[in-house]
Amino acid sequence: MKPIPPMQVAPVTLQGPTLRLEPLSLDHVDGLAAVGLLPELWRWVPTLISTPAEMRGYVELALEDQFKGASLPFALVLAGPGQQNGQVVGSSRFGNISLRDRRLEIGWTWVAPAWQRSSVNTEAKTLLLTHAFETLGAHRVELKTDFLNDKSRAAIARIGATQEGIFRRHIVNDNGRVRDTVYFSIIDSEWPAVKARLTTLRA
């Protein structure tokens, strides 16, 4: 059997109808801090970000992981017509990248409250999944969330991801709570159906 070549993951800008995913940089820190310091954004994630300095540290750590080949982080930037064009509204990334296994995770996603009821999250997921399966040739994309985060679990399931299991007492959050983590995945053979679901959700 011919060996399967590893994925080739590199910084890229992903453009959608109303959203642009730009390679994350320190230039995004001020924009992220302007919309991303509200406690509600960090309730369900291990890391607490409450000051501009902590946001800078968050971005620096993401860039360190990118340098190591472990992640590829993005800033979510509005790109449709209107006065908000160019507004930074959140962040997401590919993480836990395994080039040999053609596997990665989509996560570390947050969207500022003013845009949480818009198409931003769905469009971001669509851009990331499309790039993962159709450009990178991923075999598997993983997603995970806090067991207690019913909203996130429902959103992941709604796009057609399969819940695989619960990692009990998996992560100690900054606030000291020990969280259980729910793991989901989408594999390459499922992508056409998931893509069709995402198209419906964005309509």
UniProtKB/TrEMBL annotation:
PROSITE patterns: GNAT. Residues 19-185 form the N-acetyltransferase domain. SUPFAM superfamilies: Acyl-CoA N-acyltransferases (Nat). This is GNAT family N-acetyltransferase.
